[in-house]
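Comment thread on ticket #2218

A.B. wrote:
> Attaching the input chain for the structure job we discussed in standup.
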Amino acid sequence: ETRGALEGLAQKVRDLRGGDALVPVMVDLAISDFRIYGPVSGLYPGGLIRHRFREGNRHLVALWVTHLGLDCLSGVSGSPRPPLSAMCTGRSDCIFDCPEDSPKLLGELLEIYWQGLRRPVPFFPNSSWAYAEAMTKGKDNPGEDARKCWEGNDYNYGETQDPYMRRCFPVFDPQGSDEFARIAETVVMPALSRKRGRKKAS
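C.D. wrote:
> Ran it. Output below, let me know if you need it in another format.
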C-alpha cells in the first residue's frame, strides 16, 4: 500500500511539473519598507511544484508565501507569472492560483513577520489554518475549531504541546484572542481563497 501511494505521488508530481526543472529564480523585491532577496528553486514548466508524503499546514503557508513572492517578481521583472504553485502529498494536492493583489498580501505578511522579530505573535500553522477554514465555511464559532487544534487530544498532537510555543504562550486560548483571529485571517484566508485541490482517487 505504501509503495502504491508513493508511485501515485511520483506520477502526480511528474504530471504537474510538465517537464524538466528550470533554473532557480533570484528574487529581489522591495515591498513596503522591506527587501526580499534570495533564490527560489523547485520551478518547472508547470509552476512551483513541491511534494511531501504527508501534508502539513506549515508547509502550505511556506508555499503560499513563496507563491506570492514569485507573482510579485513577475510584476516588476516582466517574467511570466507562475502558472500555479502546488504541494502534492500522498492523500491530496493543494494548488494555489495567482491572486490579483500579491504585493498587498505579501506586504501584510511582512508586517506580521516584523512584529514577530520583536515579540512572539500568536500565529500557529494548524490552529490558525483551522480557524480560517471554519471562517470560510461560515461556522458560528471558528475559535472552537482553533482551540481543538491548539489543545489536541489523545489521538492528535496539539500545538500547545510544542515546548517552544508553550514557552512563548504559557497561557493562551485561541478562542479568546482577537489578535490571533486577525492574524489567522490575514495570513490564511487569502491563501484559502486562491486554493484548489484534488483528493486522491479511491
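A.B. wrote:
> Thanks. Noting for the ticket: The two ends are 13 Å apart (CA to CA).
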